[in-house]
UniProtKB/TrEMBL annotation:
GO molecular function, one term: oxidoreductase activity
Classification via Gene3D superfamilies: NAD(P)-binding Rossmann-like Domain
InterPro entries xrefs: NAD(P)-bd_dom_sf (IPR036291), SDR_fam (IPR002347), Sec_Metab_Biosynth_Oxidored (IPR052228)
Pfam families found in the cross-reference section: adh_short (PF00106)
Domain of life: Eukaryota
Lineage, uppermost ranks: Eukaryota, Fungi, Dikarya, Ascomycota, Pezizomycotina
Organism listed in the record: Penicillium frequentans
Keywords, sorted A to Z: Oxidoreductase
Protein name listed in UniProt: NAD(P)-binding protein
Amino acid sequence: MVSYKEIKASNALINESTAPRVAVFVGGTSGIGKITIEALVATGTSIRIYLIGRKCSSERTHAFIQGLQAISPRAEIIWTEGEVSLLAEAKRICEVVAKKESRIDLLFFTTGYAPFGARTETSEGLEITQSLAYYSRMMFILCLLPLLRKAEAPRVVSVLGGGMERGNIDLEDIDLKGPGKFGPMKAQMQYIGMNTMVMEKLASENPDVTFIHSWPGWVNTGNVRRGLDPNSMMGWVIWLFIEPLIGFFSFSDEESGQRHLFQCTSAAFGGRGVPWKGKIGVNTMGKQEDGLFLVNYKCDCTPNVGAVSALREKAQGKIWVHTQNVLRQYMQEG
């Protein structure tokens, strides 16, 4: 485990040469995204952040932005409204950013929530939690890769469940549309495996970009109840039992923000960023440079060799082809 003392010492070294200049936070209006933005702005470096969220969060986010600018007037926060569960909207937002920027240093994802409710599709025919946790994220990565490649030490951090992959996922019904296929555990494991496989592929093709699939551990963001009727039996169970349990075991917001800031900036993952004298992280290919790093809540790399190797051999190609087929019509538009 990387101690909190070591985390804070590393983050204290963030300066103009090691901090991201341009960052895109997809899902930064609450939870881990929000507290990571706070930690990043508090470094006092010159940064421009595109904060992407839904219309319903606009009012409280503007108040949040005002608070951030009071912390550091050197931070420019650009509120970018959009419903990113829709791939057409994700593509539109990417185009907005691409028209304004010549490079992106950091792309950070926290979109999504626990799939405890019934299977619910967006207007584009995708299950909403799968779109948020996977398809939308891949759309942003693929569309913004050209700008990431132009940065000096670009990084993509996807917060979901890196290191928790299982060696098999449903390749016959990748979107879990069949009767009885969709359920909280199976859906979450499906999304985690898909994220890791495609991010690993993209990392191998873009060695100058550091990719991190992060598992935040227990963090009480409230997302575990999102999508549920608060008066349902499951809603009451989560409120009475699961959320108090999460609160008991979770890091404080401050520590979680600092740990994710460390993942965004430290050379512990891939050798680029804030100099690091501690243990160097190992990627999914067993190497210390480039590639995809599976990072847990302790900021340790957990390559999960057995499961990831099995997925790489049996599932990676099929997941990639399926993903291309889903995204193709949106990638070609405009």
